[in-house]
Each structure stands twice: as C-alpha cells, then as structure tokens.
Write a structure and sequence with these properties.
Layout (H helix, E strand, L loop, with lengths): L1 E3 L2 E3 L14 E8 L8 E3 L5 E3 L1 H10 L2 H4 L3 E8 L3 E8 L18 E3 L27 H7 L6 H16 L11 E7 L2 H12 L14
Length: 212
C-alpha cells in the first residue's frame, strides 16, 4: 500500500507487464456480495441445486462467446456463492503476446457492476506523469485507459447482465465489487485447475468460500 493525500490505497496486484487483452488462458473467480447463497445449494449427493439466479448465472456465462467471438470457454462451475471458469482469449490478429512463464501472477481484477469499464484503479488514485505512450507498460496504459476486448470488459459485461436479470426476481442480488483472475501458464496448471473446478461441488465443505 502507498500513501496518497494522507490516505492509503491498495496497489493493483495485476502483472504490470501484461496486457489482459492478450491471448492466454485465464482462471476466473467471481464471488457474490457478502458470500450470500444466491445461486443455490449443494445437496447430499454433492450436486448443485440451482435457484433461478443460479440458472441465470450459468446461462449468461455460456453466452459470452456470442458477444466476444474471440473467447473460448473451458471448465466452468456455479457454486452457492461464487463461480469458477476458464476463459481463453484467442484473437486471430497478430497483436497478441504469449506468456513466457517467467513472471508470477495472481491478479485480482474488477469493475463496477453498473458500468462497462474496468475499475482496476481507484478514482482517488493519482494519474501517472505524462510520458510517451510508447514507453508505457501495459499496466500503465491500463491505468490511463481500461480498454475493451480484455478480461475486465468480458467479466464486467457478464456481471452486469447477470445482475440486471437477477434483480427481476431478487432486487438484493449483488456481486462482490471485484473479481479474481489468474493467467494459466501451462498444460499442467490448466489440468490442475480443470480438476479443481470440476470437483468443486464435491469439495464444497472444504472450500474457502464455504458458508452455511
């Protein structure tokens, strides 16, 4: 944390050298506000029993590629108070960069549910000093302009459409203001995360989001 105008602010935990619109596989976790069980419950057979809002959360996840054609969806699960999914950005233009596996990244991205832009930086955060955009890192460019067709805009749009439809049956529904994303480095990590997502209902009682 750094001090700015006598107030502490949290620095972005995202990888500053990484553009979150680049081709890669991303592990996404989105949690409901206060960990409320809006999506359903896990029954005695370790199966998810969906509420109406849980079905909405599932439905609109699978519609993401309809609105972002460069997105491929992988393993996905809806849990009582959160969702896990793997999002693959696969743009065909030659403007992407593969991960070199050298940087450790466990980023936490997020955005406000009422707008379609990322909220990676706080409104009270100072702007970086003027400099040539050619010399800016992806993180600095993201600070100035969150952009579109990246993980924040994809997940932001998903959160918004789920919220808008969920409010028709429960006006109190809300997401946690941020979401967690992680760049998947290789096939070993991909398979481990797939296994984790697939078995999440069976391991619900040991889940860090578990609350009755």
């Amino acid at each position: 944390m750094t001090l700015y105008k006598n107030k502490y602010r949290v620095e972005s935990t995202r990888l500053q050298k990484w553009d979150y619109g680049w081709n890669a596989k991303y592990f996404i976790t989105i949690v409901t506000k206060n960990h409320e069980h809006y999506f359903g419950e896990i029954d005695g057979n370790n199966e998810m029993k969906f509420t109406k809002i849980g079905k909405i959360a599932s439905k609109f996840w699978f519609e993401i590629p309809d609105h972002f054609p460069f997105v491929i969806l992988d393993e996905f699960v809806v849990m009582p108070n959160h969702i896990h999914g793997i999002v693959i950005i696969d743009k065909k233009r030659d403007d992407t960069k593969p991960s070199n596996g050298n940087d450790d990244e466990r980023g936490d991205g997020g955005r406000d549910k009422a707008c379609l832009v990322s909220t990676l930086s706080s409104p009270s955060s100072p702007s970086p000093p003027p400099q040539s955009t050619d010399k800016l890192s992806p993180g600095q460019k993201r600070f100035r302009n969150p952009g579109k067709n990246n993980i924040s805009s994809i997940i932001g749009s998903y959160k918004s459409v789920v919220s808008n439809n969920a409010h028709k049956s429960n006006p109190d529904f809300d997401w946690h203001s941020r979401f967690h994303d992680s760049i998947i480095r290789d096939d070993t990590e991909l398979n481990r995360i797939r296994y984790y997502i697939k078995n999440n209902p069976k391991n619900w009682c040991d889940d860090k989001f578990y609350e009755r």
